[in-house]
Amino acid sequence: MTEIARIALIGDLHGSWDDWDSRYFNASDYALLLFTGDLGSGTRDNGVRIARSLGRLAKPAYVMPGNNDVRHAPEIAAEIGHQRGLFALRRIGAAVKAGMHMPLSGQVRLCGYSVHPLELAGRSITLLAARPHALGGGDFSYPERLSSSYGVSSMEASARRLRELVESAPSEELLVLAHNGPSGLGSAATDPWGCDFRAEAGDWGDADLADALAHARKLGKRVLAVIAGHMHSPTCGGDARTWQLRRHGTLYVNPARVPRIFEDARAKYRHHAVLEIGVEARGCAREQDVEARGCAREQDDEARGCAREQDVEARGCAREQDVEAREQNVESVVVREVLVQESE
Questions:
Q1: Residue 242, class by beta-carbon neighbours within 10 Å (0-12 exposed, 13-18 middle, 19+ buried)?
Q2: Could you read off the pLDDT tens digit of each residue along the chain, which spans 344 residues?
Q3: Which terminus of the chain is more exposed, N or C, with fewer CB under 10 A?
Q4: Is residue 10 a part of any domain in this protein?
Q5: Is residue 248 part of a domain?
Q6: Closest listed residue to residue 255, CA positions, set 238, 222, 237, 230
Q7: CATH number of domain containing 180
Q8: DSSP class of residue 138?
Q9: Element (H or E) spanning 299, and its range?
Q10: Would residue 196 count as lying in a domain?
């Protein structure tokens, strides 16, 4: 039987979150919630209100601070920590009454420049949290905040830290959470992290993140998906942004639909995306990889006694089947958008 892990991807909030959302996700079957940041609308009260509501989530959740969260980052972190503590106390109280043992910590974590081992769909996967507060466009934004909070003070230091995190990841497979996406995925205004507020458009992705992903591939790590927001859909010109694509065996997802809560004449809707990770296709990928290596060995044996062309054919066969195996593995990770009607 195929085991599926379902992960909710919640794009930039910008104030569009309340306790209705918390109740909805608490009642869901999601194994994990990932937030791309920009929690509030820019004011302290709004940011803290969102943090207070997020802190009431009973599901495991990781929140990547966005550029909009910089000014009130200490208050947001304190509020999430406070709510996490209250959540733990409530669970402990309920467990004592029921005579049960419960974990002594809450579920929601702010993240950044960090790795988090996970068990999802029967496989070990590491969540790598990239640079917080990223503004994109090639700039190392908010250096004083990042230096004081994370000890990182330049783009070069950030790239180095992210490479070190890739190397320290305890699993072969990675999920990456960021506020802004990597460079190299398009320069049109409607590309996942293309600039939509300048006439000349341009690639607004982050080079340090792109460097870390290339490093992961070099080490043989499988980056299953990269989740990041910051560049919204619809764009400033009112066009739909490309919100998902596959490249180098990785699924890139930008779930930042802003505003995420909207309504029409019929209902009010709340947006998120769902990432599904399964194991059946992964098993098939391993079988094909074994076949590929077997094919290579058999043809290599023949090549030793024959012409050099056969060796070339053998290596070509191995490469083609290895590509098929990797593609099969990629297809075990899929994403789709979800619009929830508030009446649901």
A1: middle
A2: 568 999 999 999 999 999 999 999 999 999 999 999 999 876 777 788 898 889 889 899 999 999 988 877 777 777 776 665 555 444 434 433 444 433 434 589 999 999 999 999 899 999 999 999 999 999 999 999 999 999 999 999 999 999 999 999 999 999 999 999 999 999 999 999 999 999 999 999 999 999 999 999 999 999 999 999 999 999 999 999 999 999 999 999 999 999 999 999 989 999 999 999 984 444 444 444 444 444 444 445 444 444 445 444 444 544 444 444 444 444 589 999 999 998 75
A3: N
A4: yes
A5: yes
A6: 230
A7: 3.60.21.10
A8: T
A9: helix 280-305
A10: yes
Instruction: Please tell me the total count of domains within the chain.
Output: 1
Name the residue range of residue 204's domain.
Answer: 4-278
Report the run of H or E that residue 110 belongs to, with start and end: strand 108-110
Other C-beta atoms lying within 10 Å of the C-beta of residue 2? 12
**Considering the domain boundaries, does residue 229 fall inside one?**
yes
> Are residues 233 and 191 in contact, defined by beta-carbon separation less than 8 angstroms?
no
In sequence order, which residues have a C-beta less than 8 Å from that of residue 214 and are 6 or more positions away? Answer: none
Tokens linked to 267: 């209902």
How far are the Cα atoms of 11, 68, 160 from residue 265, in angstroms, in the given order?
A: 24, 31, 51
Q: At what angle do helices 44-54 and 73-98 cross, to 10 degrees?
A: 20
